Amino acid sequence: MDKNLLKAVYSTEDFRELGHKLIDELTNHLEDKIQEKSDNAIAWSNPENELDFWENFLVKEDASLLFPEILNRTTNVHHPKYIGHQVSPTAPITALSGMLSALLNNGMAIYEMGMSPSAIERVVIDKLCKKIGYDKDSGGFLTSGGTLANLTALLSARKAKVSHDVWNEGHQDQLGIMVSSEAHYCIDRAAKIMGLGEKGIVRIPTTQNFQMDTSLLQSYLDRAKRKGIIVFAIIGSAPSTATGIYDNLETIGKFAHTNHLWFHVDGAHGAAAIFSEKYAHTVRGIQQADSVVIDGHKMMMMPTITTALLFKNDRHATATFSQKADYLLTPTDHEDWYNSGKRTFECTKTMMSIHWYVLLKTYGEEIFDEFVTRLYDMGHQFGKILQNDSHFELAVPPESNIVCFRYIDSSLDTMALNELNKNIRQNLLEDGEFYIVQTKLRGVQYLRTTIMNPFTTREHLRQLLRKIKEYSKQNNEHLD
């Protein structure tokens, strides 16, 4: 064994030198992107070329070039022309909390392996529960992403609402959940992981504006019961990922209460509106929910992936994964909130609580109000710009910072327009100046933007539309 190699790995002087150098490089990167010293939001490369580059780099290039190359060959979420996926331009201070978490590596399954972050997490959870409107019986925990949080919430719902102990005994009955047809795909995934199958996913159609049609809830529940499906939960989207439209949480909550269903709100993207004085109305009724998911890495400026799962009654957070692990988890007759391995799907997890805490401590919760309000305002303004331009059509007037639209041409049918908008998006991707994505709604192809950067302006959005018009002209000429 080469003991000198191990000494090199743990060299504090090397770490100090590399760390200072990387901080300088990251600071330069932030300045370059935020101030638009470079034009592009994405350094596009096709998958095979990128794979070839990194295979060759591992063998041929100097290690000192690694971090700079990653910075050069990436998607720049801090660039104002990044308006693609729902990933936040992280607050720079959370890069430091991330470094702290990575170096200390406190796994947090049990209190001894996460004393500070466990206590900090409790403070964060209590703050979020209070903001939602929950009382002192509430609680929850942080976990790794909205997909895992939604799965965990539905497991909690099953534990609370199904009459027999599915966790320990399994089940033969056909269980089911009710959810909007526009809900995030992770709800389908969670339902199928739980063994509900396609039959157990009762999809509620949406209105013209892509909101769950609550007028259909009772008839769809009655029909499910006639089919022998035991529905135990209903999920409201806050908002739908594809369209950014919020379901009517007040109405869904009342329906859930009347029918003794668990009410879960997938607020991974938009439940952060609880912090916005201007847009808190979008989540009116959220306090009725039995459980709520909020992603810190979407609308709260944190690194991926950090998510809060909140419960109106904290006993559900504790009961979901009840099992025996004597070597690790000691039975107690009191609520030991500090042993997260009892409460989460994960055993080991990162010290993600310090991302939330450092923002609250340094800037106060007002920073979340300012961030959410700024981005939602810009989404509404972009919607108005599009409505006033005859070359474009909105899928639906935006309620959040998610805006779906398409380029239109009266000489083209739906199929041709779909192909044109697909080509426009690919042209934008390869060009790299702007980064946007795409979606298909009721068979119609749309360009989809999520305005995640607080430095994105109306002028940036107008530049995007001018570029789209140029590409539409080029694509039409090519078709001719």
Can you offer a commentary on this structure?
The chain is of the alpha/beta class and 480 residues long. It has helices at residues 3-9, 12-34, 47-60, 66-72, 92-104, 115-132, 146-161, 166-169, 185-193, 217-226, 249-258, 296-299, 315-319, 353-363, 366-387, 414-431, 458-479; strands at 139-143, 174-180, 201-204, 229-237, 262-266, 291-295, 307-311, 392-394, 402-407, 437-441, 444-450. The strands form 2 sheets. The protein has a 7-stranded mixed sheet, sandwiched between helices. A 4-stranded antiparallel sheet has the order 8-9-11-10. Strand 10 and strand 11 (444-450) form a beta hairpin. The protein is globular, with a radius of gyration of 24 Å. Mean pLDDT is 92; it is low at 323-334.
Write the topology of this structure.
Layout: H1 3-9, H2 12-34, H3 47-60, H4 66-72, H5 92-104, H6 115-132, E1 139-143, H7 146-161, H8 166-169, E2 174-180, H9 185-193, E3 201-204, H10 217-226, E4 229-237, H11 249-258, E5 262-266, E6 291-295, H12 296-299, E7 307-311, H13 315-319, H14 353-363, H15 366-387, E8 392-394, E9 402-407, H16 414-431, E10 437-441, E11 444-450, H17 458-479
Parallel strand pairs: 2-3, 2-4, 4-5, 5-6
Antiparallel strand pairs: 1-7, 6-7, 8-9, 9-11, 10-11
